[in-house]
Amino acid sequence: MIAPYILFAIGLILIIKGGDYFVDAAVWIAKVTGLPEVLIGATIVSLGTTLPEASVSVLSAIQNQSTMAIGNAIGSTICNTGLILGIYNLIKPSKIESKIFNIKGLLMLAYIGIFWFISRNKYITQTASLILLSMLALYIVFNLIVAGRSKSDKSTAASRLVVTPKEFPVQIGKFILGIILIVFGANLLVKHGVTLATMWGIPAAVISLTLIALGTSLPELVTSITALIKGHSGISIGNILGANILNITMVIGASAQFGTLEITKQTFYFDIPATIIINSLLVIPSIFTKRISRFQALMLLAAYFIYIMLLFYINHPA
After folding, report:
1. Which end of the chain has fewer surrounding CB within 10 Å, N or C?
2. What is the pLDDT of residues 258-309, one digit of tens each?
3. pLDDT value at residue 36
4. Could you count the other beta carbons within 10 Å of the beta carbon of residue 121?
5. How far is residue 284's CA from residue 272's CA, in Å, rounded to a whole number?
6. What is the 3-state secondary structure (H, E, C) of 200-250?
7. What is the pTM of this model?
8. What is the C-alpha separation between 33 and 29, in angstroms, rounded?
């Protein structure tokens, strides 16, 4: 059966292209309205690159695929830090020049810890979902405060783009088309991801934590590579931290609004602790050294691949 492979690949391509359109248009809209660049990167860009994860997880929850909904969010968080930032900083180590990294990094670890705590009952109910969404609201407020302190009204006004009559409908069209492609692509990805998992005899949790998580994290990878080429490491790191926070709060929180999500033993005792360990390898050393070194990047990559190997071993012991 070749059809599921083709449709899965088409879904992945649609998500990537849709995410590209959405991010471009969202940044354009933000600049036109004069929003500060720090707010654009921390919220709109992160929201845009996290939209594929949100679409896949929410759709999975609606289709009663709670394992895939949770696995995609957790797997994307692990992939963002271990694989994407690992590769990025192996190529070009980053300097941490802002205290915002420290605050956001510790906030991210705290949020993952809180999620782990509320998962102890093995379910994410609508009540627990409201807690996660409240944490999202606090994160947005934090970004608004940072943006207000970082940019003056004068510099904000100066950063506005002049809109031409032809540009407006094109950008709004890209914004809407991006959302449509992401939602349609997510539908194909979830539906045929489950089919492939069944065909291969691989648990849905493994598919969601690896293949689908990697696929939905491609916008973050594209954003990071673009930032690397243009020499803006802060954008890449800030986007990953923001995307991880959104994965825990928005993606899982919104998904649980459509039905109670089951937390498996593997998720509680292996996947979430692995998320904490990998993200701690990023945040804790960087707070003291003010940089992300190549050695640290190698540690992130090693931790990611060890996690993947253990994941397959757990689900297919010798």
Report:
1. C
2. 989 999 999 999 999 999 999 999 999 999 999 999 999 999 999 999 999 9
3. 55
4. 11
5. 18
6. HCCCHHHHHHHHHHHHHCHHHHHHHHHHHHHCCHHHHHHHHHHHHHHHHHH
7. 0.81
8. 6
- Asked if 307 contacts 74 with a C-beta cutoff of 8 angstroms, the reply is no
Interaxial angle between packed helices 46-62 and 233-246, expressed in degrees from 0 to 180 and rounded to the nearest 10:
20
Dist CA 173 CA 151 (whole Å): 30
Token match 């069209």: residue?
Answer: 173
E-strand ranges in the chain read 94-95, 123-124, 261-262, 291-292
The conformation of residue 35, written as its DSSP 8-state character, comes to -
Question: Which pLDDT value is given to residue 150?
Answer: 59
Cα(256)–Cα(279) distance, rounded to whole angstroms? 24
CA distance to 28, 119, 146, 170, per residue, from 271 (Å): 37, 12, 32, 42
pLDDT score recorded for residue 168: 81
Closest CA to 105 of 268, 295, 288: 288
Cα–Cα dist 69/65, whole Å: 6
Residues 6+ apart with CB under 8 A from 78: 209, 213, 271, 274, 275, 278, 304, 307
Identity (one letter) of the amino acid at 177? L
> For 108-137, how does the pLDDT look when each residue is reduced to its tens digit (9 = 90+)?
999 999 999 999 999 999 999 999 999 999
Name all domains of the chain by residue range, CATH numbers in brackets: 3-315 (1.20.1420.30)
